[in-house]
Amino acid sequence: MLPTLNGRIQTRVLGLGIIGFFVALLITPILPTGDLGIGQAYRVTLSVLLTVVLVGVLWELLYHFLMQFRWEKDWPTLFGLLTMINEGILVWLLVRYTTIVVPEHLRPSLTAFLIQFIVTWLVFWIIENGPMRLVFHRWRFSGGRFL
Question: How far apart are CA 15 and CA 128, in angstroms?
Fold first, then answer.
């Protein structure tokens, strides 16, 4: 059973929300955030995480449209990992060049952003494609929907 659009969105929101939150809790104190206090550093990392989740929902709509042109209506698993590149570029542009995500005085460095984004994305991708499929084996048979 292939994940439905609704199932992929739910997986992305819940997975990144839970897994990304714990990753942010663990890595924020060691990120190179300059002279930001720990509270401000957490504000930045959680704002970036929220942006990744929200922008990811929009990406899912685009991916769903593009998948309709594929015969099997799904991406190979490696494509799921490689989407990190285009999503990361868009989120970086939003973080760095707009004040929608974080105020100008709290903008993270490229190094801090890349560390957070890549670590969060890899942990999410590994858990989603490994342990989550074992533990929630019925998740796959309901089109990826949790609810």
Answer: 8
